[in-house]
Amino acid sequence: MNDARREELAAGLAETESRIRDACRAAGRDPSEITLIAVTKTYPASDVRLLAGLGVTDVGENRDQEAAAKAAECAGLGLTWHFIGQLQTNKVRSVVAYADLVHSVDRPRLVDALSREAVKAGREIGCLIQVSLDTAPPDSGGVAERGGVVPAAVPDLAAAIARADNLRLRGVMAVAPLGEEPGPAFARLARTARAVREEHPGADVISAGMSGDLDEAIANGATHLRVGTALLGRRKPFVR
Q1: Residue 236's pLDDT is what?
Q2: How does pLDDT run across 196-207, given as a tens digit for each residue?
Q3: Which string of DSSP letters, residue by residue, matches 125-157?
Q4: R_g (Cα) of the chain, nearest Å
Q5: pLDDT tens for each residue of 36-70
Q6: What is the H or E stretch that residue 173 is in?
Q7: pLDDT-based confidence at 1, cuts 50/70/90?
Q8: Among 234, 224, 238, residue whose Cα is nearest residue 12
Q9: Measuring CA to CA, how many Å separate 108 from each of 64, 157, 201?
Q10: Is the torsion defined by CA of 18, 24, 34, 151 positive or negative?
């Protein structure tokens, strides 16, 4: 069974890497600029181990309950762990223990909690600002319904991360909005990313693009792709 699953994952990885090369060629970019994050939610730690054996170095999870257990089980593999889901402050202590990069920073209170727990843990945590490419309701305080801050709120949040102890502002993240072509949305994200880099030159990460829209993300400057289905197959229900 393990050999058969390894072949499945190897085929998914080869196809995904081929798509990345083709998209980079079309965009005039070097594939070495792209970091592929294998999003393994609902899949077992054994798949993470197989992917690591195939050369995958970055793993993404969006549920702390699942991620913490997998990170512990896969300790020693030299993986970089990305937390990509909405993060509640009561989960921050657990996430800080294993995550190297948090993609979903979208409010000052979360910045404060991450900094506090990172100091306690003696770790530096990379942070990406989740930018909403949707329209936020007028009374939302700049935070959109599906998470993320509107572009106008990004500079203040970037400044808060940059001055927080044990946090490092690494860049921005976004999910293409529902019901809209991803290309123009990712172009808006690229503009926001450029504005952030003007104030914070080291914040050069753009996390955008998943299995269905990675080509458009690469065309618009994405550096990190969050790919699940194309690598691992269709999602299975999460079992507690």
Answers
A1: 60
A2: 999 999 999 999
A3: EEEEEEBP-SPPPTTSTTB-TTS-B-GGGHHHH
A4: 17
A5: 999 999 999 999 999 999 999 999 999 999 999 99
A6: strand 167-173
A7: low
A8: 234
A9: 20, 6, 21
A10: negative
